[in-house]
Design a protein that fits this description.
The complex is a heterodimer of chains A (354) and B (357).
Chain A (H helix, E strand, L loop, with lengths): L1 H21 L4 E5 L9 H14 L3 E5 L7 H11 L4 E4 L5 H10 L4 E5 L9 E6 L1 H15 L4 E6 L4 H17 L4 E6 L6 H13 L4 E4 L5 H9 L2 E6 L10 E7 L2 H13 L6 E4 L6 E3 L8 H16 L9 E2 L5 E3 L7 H5 L15
Parallel strand pairs in A: 1-2, 1-3, 3-4, 4-5, 5-11, 6-7, 6-8, 8-9, 9-10
Antiparallel strand pairs in A: 10-12, 13-14
Chain B lengths: L1 E5 L5 H26 L3 H9 L6 H26 L7 H18 L8 H27 L3 H21 L34 H18 L1 H11 L1 H6 L4 H28 L10 H11 L4 H25 L5 H21 E5 L8
Helix pairs in contact in B: 1-2, 1-13, 2-12, 3-7, 3-10, 3-11, 3-12, 4-5, 4-6, 4-10, 4-11, 5-6, 5-10, 7-8, 7-10, 11-12, 11-13, 12-13
Classes of the chains: A alpha/beta (354), B mainly alpha (357).
């Protein structure tokens, strides 16, 4: 009996060895929340994946994975099928990512925009999109005639509120009379809702349309209405060539390549990454010459200063809507405050939905 | 001239074999599509339909996915059998999830065995009440239940959006649109360590059995069947039509509500905006593929669940586009409806004969 058991054990070990050998090639998996052709969020992550592939590392992706019960299965399947590093690219994958990471200590996980790193093989990463918003605010403040800036917002999470505040502060600096009007659409991607929101803002007098949602619908509405707009996540210039002043581009490629190589070479370590203009995770699409070469030069200088740290998006004095001091004169907001931002600054209209 | 006439009789055996035929035709067409997309057809089909369930974890996932589909389709079969077109199971699922989730949050950090049954009952109750709206409007105002039930889907989804963004959002969750994770006492027990299959499957199985008893062994089941075949006959026979409409909608809603609460207390463990990847709509395919028969629905839910898993596996291993899963679901329904048509009707080519009036 004992001998029989030993033989069985040997067989199992042998089979395990075989299956491990079969999967020896280093592979990186990506989980996307949308289709790769959304021209926004997922599209940019897939561009990053292609860069990893171009660096000679094999990749796999699964698109349109709902953020519900299905996410855990997909992540687990990628881990089980021999992927050594897995990027989960939407906030809703936070708990499933940590859950699977617990069961696969040898696989590395990278979760975008989350805050939970419950196991040593989970890293998180995000971009300082707000630095781009500061540039947008500068342009918006200079270009608006009606002094009303329309902002299509997705969910009242710190990242979105940070963007609204950064934009408003920068616009106020060059034009103290501006007002930020916000429409909350409670979706990341819904062309119908987004274009309705853009139209509603234009009807309320906004001549600048800005979005924290992923479809190209708002810039197309702006193009038709003859107002200025800004693209989101990828360069949306070709969808509204006259209206778009620039786009904030999420450039995940350098990070994905760096982390994939680190994981392959065994130098990968858990970290919480928050990169911006300096590292190139946030980049700006070419500026529209319609805003005049003087303004383009100003913005380019501001971009350089933000990247070098000479300028900061949240430099005091900053007041909230009620007039309470948030950041004192001469100080800048620290990362902790930025990460948990949940109030509007002075000059933003309306209340944060609760 | 092409003439379409109703066949006088159809074989019962063929009636239950056509779903199998539909699946077979789907596989053949699927192979052709894979070939045209540049994949090896047999290999792609293997990754689609065999690989996902070739280990214990896969089998458990298949059951996790089939459980809500089966539950909802069982409920829908009561409605569809009696000619009541409840298209809003997704809304009833969502509302059941909201009510059940509300109770779970109310009892946050309560230990005690009463918590889970209370949540499940609340979920069933929520779905039931939500399904009564289109039923009552149909009974008293003669509204179209297809439209009302469908539009209520958006009502419940928006309500869920509002709750998870606002009043019910996790106070420690940085305003992200989700509630707290429910306490352990509010979670359906897992059946095997390491797998996700949960006690919800027993709820589904009990529902299948009860549905079979009611539909085939009771006077009520007989009434439902007759009303489906001919409303006039049902009226002559003196069946109380209004009561029955209300009842089938209540059964259907309760089943959808159970499915919703099973998802949030099972694999998800909290409320957020994506508690269902449109199970309520997919279950319509399941109900028809299963011939509105409880046993048929069990098999149909497994097959449709497999198309979801298959789409994921095929994309992981071959990078086949994810949407082929939906293409397969659509094809199965299409072939089923097409063969039904040929089953009940015959096409007559009457040549070039002159018509005599």
């Amino acid at each position: 009996m004992y001998k029989y058991f030993l033989r069985l054990l040997a067989l199992v070990l042998l089979l395990l060895g075989f299956s491990m050998n079969a999967n020896a090639e280093f592979k990186v998996g990506f989980v996307y929340v949308g289709p790769t052709g959304d021209h926004g969020w997922t599209y940019q992550h897939d561009e990053g994946r292609k860069a990893v592939e171009a660096a000679g590392i094999k990749t796999t992706y699964v698109e349109s994975v709902p953020e519900g019960a299905d996410a855990e299965r997909v992540i687990r399947q990628l881990a089980q099928s021999g992927h050594d590093l897995i990027f989960t690219t939407s906030f809703g994958y936070m708990d499933p990512t940590n859950k699977v990471a617990k069961d696969f200590p040898n696989v590395k996980f990278e979760h975008a925009t989350g805050y939970k790193r419950e196991h040593s093989n989970v890293s998180t990463y995000s971009a300082r999109f707000y630095e781009g918003r500061t540039l947008l605010g500068h342009m918006a403040g200079k270009m608006t005639k009606t002094n009303v800036i329309g902002y299509i917002a997705s969910f009242p999470i710190p990242e979105v509120i940070r963007g609204i505040n950064a934009m408003t502060l920068a616009a106020q600096k060059v034009n103290p009379n501006i007002k930020t009007k916000i429409v909350w659409v409670f979706t990341w991607y819904d062309p119908g809702k987004e274009s309705e929101a853009a139209q509603a803002l234009i009807d309320q007098g906004a001549d600048i349309i800005m979005q924290h949602t992923d479809s190209t619908a708002p810039v197309q509405v702006a193009e038709k209405a003859g107002v200025w707009s800004f693209g989101q996540a990828s360069d949306m210039q070709r969808f509204a060539p006259k209206s778009i002043l620039t786009s904030i581009i999420d450039d995940w490629a350098p990070y994905y390549v760096e982390r994939s190589i680190a994981a392959r070479d065994g130098t990968w370590k858990q970290q919480d990454t928050w990169h911006g203009l300096k590292e190139g995770m946030v980049a700006m699409a070419p500026y529209n010459s319609a805003m005049g070469s003087g303004l383009v030069k100003e913005v380019e200088k501001l971009q350089k200063d933000l990247a070098s740290g000479k300028a900061h998006s949240f430099t005091g004095p900053i007041y909230d809507q009620k007039g309470n001091l948030l950041v004192a004169k001469g100080k800048v907001a620290d990362d902790g405050m930025l990460a948990g931002m949940s109030v509007y600054v002075k000059g933003v209209e309306g209340d944060i939905p609760k | 001239m092409i003439k379409i006439e109703r066949r006088n009789e159809t074989s019962n055996l063929i009636y239950f074999l056509t779903p199998v035929l539909a699946i077979f035709l789907t596989l053949v067409t699927g192979a052709i599509i894979f070939y045209l997309l540049g994949f090896k057809p047999l290999e792609a089909l293997k990754f689609f339909f065999v690989t996902p369930i070739s280990d214990l974890y896969g089998l458990s996932e298949l059951l996790v996915k089939a459980t809500p589909l089966c539950l909802i389709a069982i409920g829908l079969s009561f409605c569809f059998k009696s000619n009541n077109w409840n298209i809003g199971a997704e809304g009833q699922l969502t509302f059941g999830g909201i009510v059940g989730g509300g109770v779970a949050l109310l009892f946050y950090n309560h230990e005690g065995v009463y918590v889970l049954p209370l949540i499940i009952l609340a979920g069933a109750f929520g779905g039931m009440v939500f399904a009564m709206i289109p039923a009552i409007l149909k009974i008293y105002f003669n509204t179209n239940e297809i439209l009302v039930s469908l539009m209520l889907v958006y009502v419940s989804k928006l309500l869920l959006d509002y709750l998870v963004v606002g009043p019910w959002s996790n106070p420690e969750g940085f305003n992200f649109p989700e509630t707290r994770q429910f306490s352990d006492s509010a979670r359906l027990p897992i059946l095997f360590e390491g797998l996700r299959i949960h006690a919800g499957i027993f709820i589904a199985l009990v529902s299948v059995f009860l549905a079979w008893v009611v539909l085939f062994k009771t006077y009520l089941g007989f009434q439902i069947k007759v009303s489906g075949l001919s409303l006039k006959t049902a009226k002559y026979a003196g069946f109380k039509g209004r009561k029955m409409i209300l009842l089938v909608f209540m059964v259907s809603g309760a089943c959808a509500g159970l499915a919703g609460v099973g998802e949030i207390t099972g694999p998800i463990g909290q409320l957020h905006r994506m508690i269902s990847p449109e199970y309520g709509f997919t279950a319509i395919i399941v109900a028809f593929l299963g011939r509105l028969n409880p046993i048929g629905i069990v098999f149909a839910s497994l097959i449709v669940a497999l198309t979801y898993l298959g789409a994921e596996t095929a994309q992981i291993f071959l990078q086949v586009p994810k949407y082929t899963g939906q293409v397969f679901q659509g094809m199965i329904l299409f072939f089923l409806l097409a063969s039904d048509f040929l089953l009940f009707f015959r096409i007559k080519l009457s040549g070039f004969k002159k018509y005599e009036y």
